[in-house]
Amino acid sequence: MSVTVYLPKTGMGIQEGTIIKWLKAVGDRVEKGEPIVEFETVKAATELEAPADGVLAEILVPEGETVEVETEIGIIREA
User: What digits encode the pLDDT tens for the residues 30-59?
Assistant: First the structure.
């Protein structure tokens, strides 16, 4: 089973965010609630927590890229 990681909407009027840094690499084990990526919006820089336990299987949006909120940015698969 896999779980998609989405760039969250962090507030009213926030339409996009930029991936600052992935804190985990593809193949790394992640635990639900653990920070896995830093992103920035017009209001603030924020860490996004893993929505599930597993392994970071894919990074869909690389560091430095700006995408709309609710865009798929990564995939976590069961270990």
Answer: 999 999 999 999 989 999 999 999 999 999
Reduced to 3 states (helix: H, G, I; strand: E, B; else coil), residue 77 is strand
Record the pTM. 0.92
Residue 44: give its domain's CATH number.
2.40.50.100
Q: Which domain holds residue 65?
A: 2-77
SS3 4: strand
Domain count, the chain: 1
Concatenated DSSP letters for 7-74?
PPP-STT--EEEEEEESS-TT-EE-TT-EEEEEE-SS-EEEEEPSSSEEEEEE-S-TT-EEETT-EEE
CB 65 within 8 A of CB 50: no
Q: Which residue has the tokens 């635990």?
A: 31
